[in-house]
């Protein structure tokens, strides 16, 4: 494997492909009556604990986003059409998209049905330019599936992923080695991988609003304020990300969690949040065609004390009702009535034997994107 230092980072040609409003786009492709209209896949306008899986771009202009409670989505856009997900159709489309990827490289790391990393440092067709490969992939997806994808091209996974989100929909963004430093300095802290709402708020209280602000802190300072993740921030703000693309990436667990703006104290509020989180986990399980035997509940109290509780089944489960009820029983077992809860999280694991990781080939020095 290639060795890299902070002064001489490993150079690869990485493409991140992200389908545009994937579930909604498949529905609009297959159902002409949905085209040009605000549609929401998942949930229902009555709420009932459902969440948005994805929304068409016509619905997103109203502020509707993935993982949003469907009741909120209906309030933002009363005329939105709510559609039950057809995961078989999405999986079929995803399989055809991946077959296009494999025409160019075997180093494909799927993240979900609608996005993946590709290492095209040595592409099968010997095109040589990662930009040209990304353009051909986008064209093939459009012509063969009547769908659009956005692509980010760069020297590592982190930058490529951010680039793919910059010009959606149907975008193609290249961030080359000489542009990475300036790009990272301008990037808002909330766009950094691993920086959630709570961490972003903490950073802003410290006067850290962009990568340039973050770059002013030394590695030890970042570790002092953010724990071990500070080492990651130190490297990533400098554009250093040597993670290889990992084909056959094994998923060990799927989870959803949320930190609340105000601590929860009422059992009914806790139950409502568990229903929402369970629905998100169940949707992610369907997206990845997985079932698990172990449900884990994560709790962080108002005093920042954190505990986990789990329960395993003799058989695999994936439905939101079972996941929610199990999490609720675990919550009840700690008698939270007199406690303030800052965060709740649910994860499902123990999927069975996974496919072992396969190490990609060595990266070469890049000459042409």
TrEMBL record:
PROSITE patterns in alphabetical order: UMUC (PS50173)
Subcellular localization(s) per the UniProt record: Cytoplasm
Domain annotation UmuC: ranges: 14-196
EC number: 2.7.7.7
Residues at the active site: 115
Residues marked Substrate discrimination (site): 23
Catalytic activity as recorded in UniProt: DNA(n) + a 2'-deoxyribonucleoside 5'-triphosphate = DNA(n+1) + diphosphate
Alphabetical UniProt keywords: Cytoplasm, DNA damage, DNA repair, DNA replication, DNA-binding, DNA-directed DNA polymerase, Magnesium, Metal-binding, Mutator protein, Nucleotidyltransferase, Transferase
Cofactor: binding details: Binds 2 magnesium ions per subunit.
Presence of keyword DNA repair: yes
UniProt cross-references to CDD domains, sorted A to Z: PolY_Pol_IV_kappa (cd03586)
Protein's UniProt keywords contain Transmembrane helix: no
Domain of life: Bacteria
Essential cofactor(s): Mg(2+)
Binding positions for Mg(2+) per the UniProt entry: 18, 114
Pfam families: IMS (PF00817), IMS_C (PF11799), IMS_HHH_1 (PF21999)
Assembly with partners or alone: Monomer.
Function noted in UniProt: Poorly processive, error-prone DNA polymerase involved in untargeted mutagenesis. Copies undamaged DNA at stalled replication forks, which arise in vivo from mismatched or misaligned primer ends. These misaligned primers can be extended by PolIV. Exhibits no 3'-5' exonuclease (proofreading) activity. May be involved in translesional synthesis, in conjunction with the beta clamp from PolIII.
Family per similarity comment: Belongs to the DNA polymerase type-Y family.
Designated name of the protein: DNA polymerase IV
Organism (species): Compostibacter hankyongensis
Gene: dinB
């Amino acid at each position: 494997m290639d060795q890299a230092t902070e002064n001489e980072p490993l150079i690869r040609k990485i493409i991140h492909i992200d389908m545009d409003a994937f579930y909604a786009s498949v529905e609009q492709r297959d159902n002409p009556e949905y085209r040009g209209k605000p549609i929401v896949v998942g949930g229902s306008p009555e709420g009932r604990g459902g969440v948005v899986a994805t929304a068409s771009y016509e619905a997103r202009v109203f502020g509707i986003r993935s993982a949003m409670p469907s009741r909120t989505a209906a309030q933002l856009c009363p005329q939105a059409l709510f559609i039950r997900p057809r995961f078989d159709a999405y999986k079929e489309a995803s399989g055809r998209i991946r077959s296009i990827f494999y025409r160019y490289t075997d180093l494909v790391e799927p993240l979900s049905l609608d996005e993946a990393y590709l290492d095209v440092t040595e592409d099968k067709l010997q095109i040589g330019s990662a930009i040209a490969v990304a353009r051909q992939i986008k064209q093939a997806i459009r012509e063969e599936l009547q769908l659009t994808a956005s692509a980010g091209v760069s020297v590592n996974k982190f930058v490529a992923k951010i680039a793919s989100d910059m010009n959606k929909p149907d975008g193609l963004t290249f961030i080359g080695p000489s542009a990475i430093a300036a790009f990272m300095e301008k990037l808002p802290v909330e766009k950094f991988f691993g920086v959630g709402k709570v961490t972003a708020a903490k950073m802003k209280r410290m006067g850290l609003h962009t990568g340039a602000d973050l770059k002013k802190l030394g590695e030890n300072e970042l570790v002092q304020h953010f724990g071990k993740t500070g080492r990651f921030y130190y490297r990533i703000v400098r554009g250093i990300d040597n993670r290889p693309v990992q084909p056959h990436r094994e998923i060990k667990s799927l989870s959803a969690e949320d930190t609340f703006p105000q601590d929860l104290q009422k059992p009914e509020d806790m139950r409502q949040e568990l229903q929402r989180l369970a629905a998100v986990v169940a949707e992610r399980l369907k997206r990845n065609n997985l079932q698990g035997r172990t449900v884990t509940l994560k709790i962080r109290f108002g005093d920042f004390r954190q505990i986990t509780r789990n329960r395993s089944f003799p058989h695999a489960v994936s439905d939101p009702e079972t996941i929610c009820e199990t999490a609720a029983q675990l919550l009840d077992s700690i008698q939270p009535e007199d406690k303030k809860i800052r965060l709740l999280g649910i994860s499902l694991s123990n999927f069975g034997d996974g496919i072992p990781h396969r190490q990609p080939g060595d990266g070469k020095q890049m000459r042409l994107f």
